[in-house]
Input
Amino acid sequence: MKKKTLLAGFALLGALALTATGCASDSDATGDAGAGGDDDGVVTVGFAQTGSESGWRSANTESMKEAFSADNGFELIFNAADNDTAAQIAAVRDFINQGVDAIVIAPIVEDGWDDVLQEAADAGIPVVLEDRTVSASDDLYASWVGLDFEKEGVMAGEWAAETFGDTPTKMVVLEGTTGSAPANDRASGFDEAVKDTAIEKIDSQTGDFTRDGGKTVMEGFLQKYGVDGIDLVYAHNDDMALGAIEAIEAAGAEPGVDIQIVSIDAVKDGMQALVDGKINFIVECNPLLGDLAAGLVLDVLDGKEVEKEVYVEDQTFTQEQAAEVIDSRPY
Ligand code: GZL
Ligand code: ZN
Output
């Protein structure tokens, strides 16, 4: 197992932000080109975002834009690929052709990245991954910063195991984007955690991490099994859980009571549904990765050694815990 660097809490994120800002302003202050920056010391970064599929993604994009700001010494070229893998790879190729100083990618899916990452390497442009991972060799990118999706799945599964234990439980799963690291790892982590329980996965289908996707898939499950045929929904993210809530209520049932829901992300709307008793448990997935990603880009351009994997800690929330923190959370 590669060495993991666990960074907990927002305090550390703030400290790194200062570091990141410091480096950039130093190079501006001294007027030199700054490591990797062009002659005016501005570091030009191409960022290939997945799209705008969920509340989590919006928070992540905001965090990245704040970190890679002109004030911090960056010129950010932003592309959102609308959950289209071919478009995202084309955007990275475009960054290479523009000769940016560095590329940051939140890869929609794990596979298909080897060629374009090799092209970036051949062009001498370092790549930092944020959020999701790729199956390509880690020689093809400088570093990855994100969350432990497998652990998120385990934490959601452990809650389900404790809650339902040996009570025969019929569960349906709203999967994330097919082929994405979070969908793959949250499924395997959860399955591992519930393997010795009486929880039976009767169906599982992708809702593509969107609210509409979750609603449509849940409508299908309700038609197929009926309200009484489903005890638990495991949603790979809050947006799909919120869509499932709409479908369950439209079927005249009470989400969180007639059909329990466990979800991942802990974005504002998900936490509100948890407070309202419509979701039963949420595992956080921290989207505030911008400062860490910016710090990694600057360190790589400065020729510093960086960790290949930088993990950010997550936490979990019951309905009571959500009520305590909902007003103080930054996303
Ligand atoms: C997880 C991230 C996932 C979120 C979804 O880090 O990749 O994508 O869980 C988002 O909300 O769409
Ligand atoms: Zn410039």
User: Anything to note?
Assistant: The chain has two domains: 3-147+286-314, 149-284.
